[in-house]
Amino acid sequence: MKMKRHGARRLGRYAAFAALWVVLAAIFFAARRGAADHRAVQCVEDMRIEVDGRDAATFLSEETVRDWVLSYDCNPLGLALKDVDMAALESSIEANDAVADANVYLTSGGRVEIDVRQRRPLMRLMVDGYDLYVAADGYVFAAPPRSSIYVPVVTGDYRPLFGAAYSGHAHAMARDSIARIEERIDAWERDKMPLYRALQQCSRAMKKLSSQRASKGWFTSDEEYAVRCEQLELYKAQRRGELTAEAKSVQGRIDDLTRNQEGERKRQKKLEKIEEDFSKLINFVDIIQHDDFWRSEIVQIVAHGGGERELEIELIPRSGRHTIIFGRADDIERKLSDLDAFYRNVLTNIGWDKYRTVSVKYKGQVVCR
After folding, report:
1. Can you give the C-alpha Rg of the chain in angstroms?
2. Is residue 8 part of a domain?
3. What total of structural domains would you count in the chain?
4. Containing structural domain, residue 229
5. One domain, residues 50 and 35
6. Are 150 and 136 in contact (CB under 8 A)?
7. What digits encode the pLDDT tens for the residues 190-204?
8. 105: domain CATH number?
9. What are phi and psi of 121, to 5 degrees?
10. Which residues pair with 141 in a beta bridge?
């Protein structure tokens, strides 16, 4: 009897749990259906746009992003919530170079919320024919219309890897270009393999030809043997010439491929040097920007060379009439320390207009003229 009562209680608990799950499932599906019905009739009536990092070093505003959204085919205003393509809206906003990423959300009250993280330019590249902003991560982009912000300006005869109309990650562009060069070099190396085998065949044929001898049987006369030897020598000379010409032709094709590879390796080395120079320039400006004194003191950065020539930098300061010859963009902290000591201990005593050039390009020296 006890076992029967225990089994009955267990069945009762199972039935209660099953009933609870049925009720919860009904509530869930009802809520889901209600939400779907709501999304079908509720229209987007408003947008909230938030742009991060609003300061002197950024140029996007909520109004700018709102103007973008209103001009898109995927403009959500007036659409039912279910018809809003959030992925398309995010992609459209992110297509603007000044935007690092965008996130779009919908509220049940009929509002689209858009969070935008904008790119923060580190410098403005204004060398001949160029007018582009450069972010700290190497992303290059043109300034949005009617926008102007204060960042260090780089001028001079420096030439970057990318063209004047380029936008995108410069480092990624360099890596892609270098990867394509390596693919061509590898492809030409594969093209060499059958040519190497052809050379080996020519070499083996030449050795086999050299080992050939005219045969003289028991009943072969000396005159007939002499004719055989002469004919064989003529054949060997002709065949040797053919094999030599074939080997020369094959070697010529190998040499052409090798020259192509050497040319691409030189180009690869040049691209790597250009990318390295660009990274050094970004690093230099980044160090300047993180120093309160030099950020306010340096008015202009003049970059020379790059690529096959060494990248060298000159600085136009706010104080005095001199130009700072900084030299190569390396050992930056030491050079700035030497320059800072010279400013504090010398120029403050003898006057800021005493010299026309101040050079810190040589280690342990400050050379003035």
Report:
1. 38
2. yes
3. 3
4. 172-269
5. no
6. no
7. 999 999 999 999 999
8. 3.10.20
9. -65, 140
10. 133
